[in-house]
Amino acid sequence: MAINNSIQKSIHDFLLTKNINVRSVDSKTGETPLDDEGNIDFGKIDLMIFPYQGPSGKNYGTVTVLMDNGNLQIFFGDKFGKGMEPEDKEDWVGSNTNPGFLEGLKSISVRHDFNTFQIQNPSRLKYTKHGIVTGK
Prior knowledge:
This protein has 136 residues and is an alpha+beta fold. It has helices at 5-17, 86-93, 101-111, 125-134; strands at residues 23-25, 47-53, 59-68, 71-75, 116-120.
């Protein structure tokens, strides 16, 4: 898995600053890889999964972040966007004065020279993960 080790740590730290309980895993095993000292081995992580709760307290469901071959893909469902509370939508998308959650992830992607930042429907996740496991 040829991923720049620092992007996983950057995204993980970004999520922690947002008080998000993130599960970071290797998509091939579904487990959190640990190094010899029992710390998270960020170099083996390519998938992060977490619930997104907006500032209003409303939970919008699961967000999945997948890092693969210079591509950062964000998967989330239909509850995001039109159906969001105004303050939650601003936190998610951002505004002219306040960068949003997605903009923060895109900024990390650009900073680590990832070629692609894509937003996907979660129905595509199983096919994308299958492609990673099979090497296609």
